[in-house]
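Proteins fold reproducibly. Look at a concrete instance:
___
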Amino acid sequence: MVRDLGIGAVPHWFRSSFRDWAAERTDAPREVCELALARVNRDRVEAAYRRSDLFERRRELTEQRAAFLGTDRETGLPG
């Protein structure tokens, strides 16, 4: 789809840019960011004790990202 739309990026770039943005521009904990990227927790012990999908925190992070992407880079204003 990315290629068909003529976007000069690979899908991994979208994931990487999200992760960099989240680390640099938000206070979201690492686990919220990783779950937002739908990363599978490969640590079996940690995964066994995780009982929440952190849905509300992921929703808030997604809304922050949407607001950021809707910002004019030159002026910093919504646009």
The mean pLDDT is 84.
